Predict the 3D structure of the following.
Amino acid sequence: MAVIPVDVAARPYEVRVAAGLLAELVPHCRGRLRKRTVPIVTDRNVHAAWGDVVEAALRDSGHEPHWRILPPGEATKSWDELAATVNWLLAQEVERGDHILALGGGVIGDLTGFAAAIVKRGCQFIQLPTTLLAQVDSSVGGKTAINTPAGKNLVGAFHQPSLVLADLAVLDTLPERELLAGYAEVVKYGLIADAGFFSWCDTNGAEMLAGDQSLREYAVAHSVAHKARIVAEDERETSGKRALLNLGHTFGHALEAETGFSNQLIHGEAVALGMVLAARFSASLELMPKSSADHIADHFASVGLTVRLSELGLDCDGQALAAHMLHDKKMDAGQLPFVLMKGIGAAFIAKDVELSQVAQFLDRELAG
């Protein structure tokens, strides 16, 4: 088992990575499950796949699970579901020292974490991420949020979990599409500041995706350790260091907004294409070699991810996509910072990018 500390100043915690953690849930949560009843938030798909395992683990240790089972998908990260979840937690008589379990992917983790942040001015919660994307990214670092008509993740709070248990066994039941979506976030850590890890992905990515357990543990643990270092340095994204984790997200969130946060383009797919677009845009500005941008696109294409904007069949122009970026939560004094690249493993924050430039670039990409 890999154990990665997340050394945030106020609430340090651990991320544990191994197969079988859900079946051994109670020993890993020792000292945190104070009452007989345990509130768990999940979605229908995860409950169908892993509900029995978690139920048995809790009941065998004398606990009684109380489930809140939500619809899967980004639409669940809404005001309505947040309010209903908060009211459910209050009806469960959750106290500030209790721990709510978030069993699911990024949607469940975000919604549950935000609810925990605001119930009684802050309850405890434990992340049990069931997707590769959630294991390597959204379950770690304390960002919680819901979506609004104005954009993605615009209402939320920084609220760190008490513990993250990344059970690699869940990846065996994950649909291939979701596995690939999570892989995009794995590769992201190589592209930001670790060219050696991108080379590792080049060599081992396909085999890891195919199911090699030791490679999966290394990929998840390495990604979490990278994120943990950045979060420890810049927990609330004030110094600019943590903003590097948004590589691909400004383009990706615009694509998600244009497709209505629907199943047409799920988050990891949008981020993968967003990173390709960030690389190509950087190359168009002569910030990085075109060959490096092509290498990134070729790598994602080799595992089956979309790397051409024209292939999405969007009925819009570059200006419409750029307009979505105006609602990005990173806007500062009317300027949107972009995470661009000087090469593989050399991402940086650019604060002088004009959206008109971006719109023209996207028009060219839409045309193919």
Remarks:
- The chain has a mean pLDDT of 95.
